[in-house]
Backbone:
């Protein structure tokens, strides 16, 4: 079997660092070069350190629409599956001793169906709230923008 080149690169000896531009590879006298101190990272640009997060109102609206569409499709498929075979079980398939199981089964199917309906309403509510948030942010941006003096 072939060698694992990635493992060799990761676990093998570290290669010697390349000489920096303008520095000779070996100093006079043949001594081993010492690495120069690494340059410090440049300071963060002003205004970027506040932790402010900004969203585009149009992107919020698109996100809300996409979330609602995707979730509604999933819930719709789940309801179709729930309405098919599970509802085909007839109460007379249960014996007299298992009538409580028949009643429980029916209630469970109805509960699951109602739960999917409620989740669909929540998906629509998420979309409505994201649209409202986008409108509020758009209005706040508009009102906080300085107009011509």
Residues:
């Amino acid at each position: 079997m072939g060698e694992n080149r990635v493992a060799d690169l990761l676990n093998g000896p570290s290669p010697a660092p390349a000489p920096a531009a303008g520095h000779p590879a070996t100093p006079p006298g043949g001594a081993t070069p010492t690495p120069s101190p690494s340059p410090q990272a440049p300071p963060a640009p002003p205004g970027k350190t506040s932790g402010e997060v900004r969203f585009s109102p149009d992107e919020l609206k698109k996100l809300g629409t996409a979330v609602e569409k995707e979730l509604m499709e999933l819930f719709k498929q789940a309801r179709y599956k729930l309405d098919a075979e599970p509802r085909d079980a007839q109460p007379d398939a249960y014996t007299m001793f298992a009538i409580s199981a028949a009643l429980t089964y029916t209630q469970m199917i109805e509960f699951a169906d109602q739960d999917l309906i409620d989740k669909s309403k929540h998906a629509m509510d998420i979309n409505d709230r994201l649209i409202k948030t986008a409108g509020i942010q758009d209005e706040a941006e508009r009102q906080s923008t300085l107009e011509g003096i």
User: Anything to note?
Assistant: The longest helix spans residues 99-144. The two ends are 75 Å apart (CA to CA).
